Amino acid sequence: MFTGIIQALGNLRSVTTTESGRQLVFDLGALGSRKFQLGDSIAVNGACLTAVAFGSGTFTADVSAETLRVTTLGQLGPGSPVNLESALTLTEPLGGHLVTGHVDGVGEVAERREEGGMAILRLALPAFLQRYAARKGSICIDGVSLTVNDVTDNLVLVTLVPHTLANTIMQHYRIGTRVNIEVDLVARYVERLLGKS
Question: What is the tens place of the pLDDT at every residue in 70-95?
Answer without folding.
Answer: 999 999 999 999 999 999 877 777 77
